[in-house]
Amino acid sequence: MLETIAVVLVILWLLGVVTAHTMGGLIYILLVIAVVVILIRVIQGRGP
After folding, report:
1. Is 48 among the domain residues?
2. Among 30, 23, 25, 29, which residue's Cα sits nearest to residue 7?
3. What's the rounded Cα separation, in Å, for the pair 13 and 20?
4. Which of 7, 23, 25, 32 is most buried as measured by Cβ atoms within 10 A of its Cβ?
């Protein structure tokens, strides 16, 4: 479930970088949230 969300956020980030910089701030925030979620899962002992 969380891996799926992370993949979707990365795709949205790439789309934001390619298309325009107007939504770039929001996309970067979502990307940071995805990375934090993955790090929390790794720390808890569940693989990413």
Report:
1. no
2. 30
3. 11
4. 23
Give the separation between CA 10 and CA 38, rounded to whole angstroms.
12
Query: Does a structural domain hold residue 35?
Result: yes
Range of the domain at 37: 2-43
If you average pLDDT over residues 16-30, what whole number do you get?
Answer: 68
How far apart, in whole angstroms, are the C-alpha atoms of residue 25 and residue 16? 9
pTM for the model stands at: 0.47
Asked if residue 12 lies in contact with residue 27, where contact means CB atoms within 8 angstroms, the answer is: yes
16 in a structural domain: yes
15 inside domain: yes
Q: What share of the chain has pLDDT > 90, as a percent?
A: 0
